[in-house]
Design a protein that fits this description.
Shape: globular
Strand content: 25-35%
Oligomer: single chain
Largest sheet: 4 strands, antiparallel
Number of helices: 5
Helix content: under 10%
Length: 339
């Protein structure tokens, strides 16, 4: 499949002209969305990484290799690929989503965080969910009103919306089951979500964008059943003096100028996309973004590394506890994000 930026934006599916089943497309999509998605859990995602029969998780599996072990399409027959169907995403804006495919149903997002469930064999729409993002949020997203995709787990489809909500949908009908506001202070910060959620061990994890405007970076984990907050880790210190919420915040505070402009605008370091769950070690690795303001001489005039900007950070997946970090660009002032 290929996502094309045309007017209108189309989702296109390719198949071997001689006929190609694969990827669980032999199932009845309506039945699959009602029953089969209920058993998409950690065990099935692990098993699928070996079989490759589905595309159950962002970038394929927990290892996020983006690589399928299937061999039906190869160097001998790739030239026989032809258009099977196309699907209009109903917008002329940017498309950056990776579709999820479960037993013949494709779940994919379009611009403005709209979710589409599609029969992957025919391209027929099964349902559509529109979170009704207020138009003004288009000005708060740095790089268009894109969305990078959904997560599917135990009968639910999870999506982060451009206006900062995490939403759980019924996989069979697209009905909204719950919605939580991921913003810590809407009166002060302009947080947007364009990244795809990650889901594991009954947790759905999401970050956000906004470092170009007024935002403080953090990543949050919610329970898949009801959306209650389980843990949250901040990539930029919330305080410059005790008491600190955890040792990682105390360590970070020593690397920022307490009189810098970051105190007014959040500091940045947003975790707007790249996250990987390590199923073997039960860790979550996140990439953090640039600082806010960009110029460190304004953000932190006395200097400092400004932890944890532009870093790869390992967190305990159960608690969000900081484990270690590697800062790729200490004191970044060039927008060299690590996301």
């Amino acid at each position: 499949m290929n996502l094309l930026r045309t007017a209108p934006v189309l989702l296109a599916a390719l198949s071997l002209i001689a006929g190609l089943a694969g990827c669980g497309l032999g199932k009845t999509p309506q039945a699959a969305s009602a029953s089969k998605t209920a058993n998409v859990d950690d065990g099935r995602i692990r098993a699928n990484q070996a079989s490759g029969k589905e595309w159950l998780s962002y970038n394929f599996g927990y290892d996020e290799t983006r690589y399928s072990p299937l061999r039906q399409v190869n160097t001998e027959n790739v030239q026989r690929l032809g258009l099977a169907w196309s699907y209009d995403l109903g917008s002329e804006r940017g498309v950056e989503a990776t579709p999820i495919v479960v037993d013949g149903v494709m779940y994919v997002t379009g611009p403005w965080s709209v979710v589409h469930a599609i029969d992957a064999r025919t391209g027929k729409r099964l349902w559509i969910y529109d979170p009704k993002v207020p138009p003004e949020f288009g000005a708060w997203a740095c790089c268009d009103v894109v969305n990078r995709g959904v997560a599917v787990y135990k009968g639910k489809v999870f999506v982060g919306t451009l206006h900062g909500y995490l939403v759980a949908l019924d996989a069979a009908s697209g009905k909204e089951l719950w919605r939580v506001d991921t913003n810590i202070d809407r009166s002060r910060y302009k947080h947007t979500i364009t990244g795809a959620p990650r889901v594991f061990r009954d947790k759905v994890v999401i970050g956000h964008g906004g470092a170009e405007l007024a935002a403080v970076g953090y990543v949050s984990a919610y329970h898949v059943d009801d959306g209650r907050l389980l843990w949250r880790w901040f990539s930029v210190p919330q305080r410059v003096e005790p008491p600190f919420s955890d040792p990682s915040q105390e360590r970070a505070a020593k690397t920022w100028d307490p009189n810098g402009a970051w105190r007014e605008v959040g500091g940045g370091g947003t975790i707007w996309d790249s996250m990987v769950y390590d199923d073997e070690l039960n860790r979550l690795y996140v990439g953090t973004g640039n600082g806010n303001p960009w110029n460190r001489e304004v953000r932190s005039p006395s200097g400092g590394d400004n932890l944890y900007l532009s870093s790869v950070v390992a967190l305990d997946a159960d608690t969000g506890r900081y484990l270690w970090h590697f800062q790729e660009v200490p004191g970044d002032t060039w927008d060299y994000t690590a996301t």
